[in-house]
Amino acid sequence: MRAIVIVLDSVGIGALPDASLYGDEGSNTLVNTARAVGGLKLPNMEKLGLGNLDEILGVAPTDRPRGAYTVMKEKSPGKDTTTGHWEIAGIVLKKPFDLFPRGFPRELIEAFEKATGRAVIGNKPASGTEIIKELGPVHEKAGALIVYTSADSVFQVAAKEEIVPPEELYRYCKTARTLLDEMGFKVARVIARPFTGTWPNYVRTERRKDFSLDPEGTTVLDLLTQSGIPVYGVGKIGDIFNYRGVTKNWKTKDNMDGVDKTLMVMKERKEDCFIFVNLVDFDMKYGHRNDPAGYARALEAFDERLPQIIDRLEKGDILFITADHGCDPTTPSTDHSRERVPLIVYGSSVRPGRFNERESFADLGQTIAELFHVEPLENGVSFLKEILKEG
User: Fold this and answer.
1) Is pTM beyond 0.90 here?
2) Do 177 and 288 fall within a single domain?
3) What does the alpha-carbon distance between residue 333 and residue 54 come to, in Å, rounded to a whole number?
4) Closest Cα partner for 77 from 365, 338, 363?
5) Which candidate, 152, 200, 245, 380, has a CA 20 to 30 Å from the CA of 387?
6) Is residue 99 a part of any domain in this protein?
7) 365 belongs to a structural domain
8) Are residue 307 and residue 378 in the same domain, yes or no?
9) CB distance 170 to 192 below 8 Å
10) CB 361 within 8 A of CB 72
């Protein structure tokens, strides 16, 4: 038996009741994207019941869904990648991660400059591709490090590989991780962002590296690996959990590479295991750039590949398709949005139809814990009995 969770990064389905606290009233990533492009073509997720969750233009409701379906609310404060994934795995944050909409405090930057021996430029929220275009020439001339943040709780350091070799950049990021922790800043990830090329056509390389906080508590990944059940990550899962509870992780270049690697893992790993997948393009390439047409194409591309994933399921396997937050590309904001997320469940043992709305993403982690008969998590209510066929 295998559990496969595929996180469609940022594919939310409507503002949470507290969305006004985040400036996200009216956000609905799926519905608004569909409306913006004149309708989505998602026939495979439609068959599973996606169109029964909301009025998604082009995705019809069905009287005979092949999957079980509902929506989940986020209980943790925040609306970022780490918070969403940690809660899926069973952790409900009491205190949100720190965000830096006006850049990092001067005392932190000065300590970082002193420790690295390099000046810092930037120090503001920015698109990674835009800030290296803006500041790359200054960086090349002076050797200064480009430091920036985003809507997520991240401390990002960009440098051209020919000026700061990746291994040296990694050392600087480890330094930043230590300083943040020692100075009491709760930052989810420090990210090394090496790039190369010539201005204005710089290209970020595949040697990105994340330095994350350890999860704040026990996750279902911990429980499974401690019980001898492997956890296989695809995409940035390993980074999000600082590789704790992850048996092996495969990095990905884009969504389609993520699907390819998921299919590879499903083909090669037949033992009882948990396969945890993140497909990031929706968020990184389209949500943050307010590109509903690109977002729609990415959704349709995943939907086209979904039958390949379903065909690779074996008897007893359960597939869960969900998200970690929203990132509505139709609103003025380029930030994440505080939204419910869809949850679609499919497998030979799954009873099709709607089941109860979930009050926490942690319900999914608790369900996986029950599925593998490991000890229960501190948070979440299992819905396993709601989705399994009788007998």
Assistant:
1) yes
2) no
3) 23
4) 338
5) 245
6) no
7) yes
8) yes
9) yes
10) yes
User: What domain count does the chain have?
Assistant: 2
Q: Which residue is it, tokens 């020919």?
A: 162
Q: Which amino acid is at 66?
A: R
Compute the half-sphere exposure of residue 82: CA atoms within 13 Å on the CB side of its CA: 26
Report the 3 state secondary structure along 155-192. EEEEEECCCCCHHHHHHHHHHHHHHHHHCCCCCCEEEE
CA proximity to 131, closest of 156, 114, 112, 152: 156
Cα distance between residue 192 and residue 166, in whole Å? 8
| Domain encompassing residue 142 | 106-212
Q: Are 135 and 146 within 8 A, CB to CB?
A: yes
The separation between the first and the last C-alpha atoms of the chain, rounded to the nearest angstrom, is 16
Q: Given the structure tokens 């469940």, which residue do they identify?
A: 345
Q: Locate all alpha helices (DSSP H) within 186-331, ordered by sequence.
A: 220-226, 237-240, 255-268, 281, 292-311
CATH number at residue 277: 3.40.720.10
**What residues have CB less than 8 Å from 39, skipping those under 6 apart?**
57, 58
pLDDT tens series, the chain, 391 aa = 999 999 999 999 999 999 999 999 999 999 999 999 999 999 999 999 999 999 999 999 999 999 999 999 999 999 999 999 999 999 999 999 999 999 999 999 999 999 999 999 999 999 899 999 999 999 999 999 999 998 889 999 999 999 999 999 999 999 999 999 999 999 999 999 999 999 999 999 989 999 999 999 999 999 999 999 999 999 999 999 999 999 999 999 999 999 999 999 999 999 999 999 999 999 989 999 999 999 999 999 999 999 999 999 999 999 999 999 999 999 999 899 999 999 999 999 999 999 999 999 999 999 999 999 999 999 999 999 999 998 6
For residue 4 the two structure tokens come to 């496969």
Same structural domain for residues 221 and 72?
A: yes
Element (H, E) at 135: helix 128-142
Distance CA 361, CA 84 (A): 7
Select from 172, 197, 212 the last residue of a domain: 212
